[in-house]
Every structure is written in C-alpha cells, then in structure tokens.
Amino acid sequence: MSLPSDGEREALNLDEEPLKDWILKAYHEKALDSEEHARLVDAERLLLSGPNAHYNSARYYFEADPGPRLEAFARQLDEVSENLAADLFEPIELGLKQSEPSLETPEERPRGRASAASATNLSLYIASLAGPIALRAGIDETVACSLLSTVLLAVSRVGITPVREALG
Fold it and tell me: Which of 14, 16, 49, 139 has a 20 to 30 A CA-CA distance from 126?
C-alpha cells in the first residue's frame, strides 16, 4: 500500500479482496443477529451499492458523489452508536500518518504503533483494530471489521480527504 498525497482525490493502492471478504462475512453471518447489526450492514450496502443497484466492485455507489454519500453513511452509523463513524476513521487515519516516511528508526518508534502500510496481512490488521471499536460500540467484532473495511475501501477509492470530511 502506498501513502496518498495531500490532494483532494488521493487514493491508496491496496488489495481490496480482504476488505470485501470482511464486508461479505458480516453481511452473510451477522446481519440478522440484531437490529443494530442489520442497520449497520444495511448502511454499508447502501454506501457500496446504492438504493437500487447491484453489487459492483468496479465502481461503488459512493464514488459518484462521495461527500454526501459518505456523510449519510456516517449519520447512519452514529444513529446506531454515538461517534462510531469517527471511531472507525481515526485508527485508519493514524495508521496512514504512521506509514509516512520519518527519520525514526524502527527501534525509536513507540511499541504497538502499527500501520496499514506496514501490515503484511491487511485482514489481520483490520481485525487488530476491530476489538476496541466493537467493545465501545457494543457491536460484534466481525461487524466492526466489516465497517473498518468499508471505511478503508472508501479511502482507497476516493482518498482520505473526502472520507475525513464526512466521517472524521
């Protein structure tokens, strides 16, 4: 994964398959566990596929008009659990900042500071972020992984700036 520039439409170059796997896992396994999970998974489906569209990973619904669609997604998340959208975005943004080249050697970096860019396994990285978020929000960890994957997918497709403005 490469670090984005400061431009409005900066994007990440990453393998989206692990992200899609988490999204589909939550959709198939957890969507009907509770009303909250159903609402969260439905918010993801709407963001990715739109109100009347079928799943299309070549171009997601939010890509055509990211600002309003990501803002609607954030509102839906926050209706289920206060500040959930920001809780999902913050560790991803922190990970991207930590992946910037710096003068620190690996030995000088504080312990436990992992980033998406340095993650050898993106799925494992997402899972490592999900536990605290799931605990705070009172949701299943698989659903938290799915939501984190959706946010990272949005960052990958439209860049961090529009996602920060909508969710951060």
Answer: 49
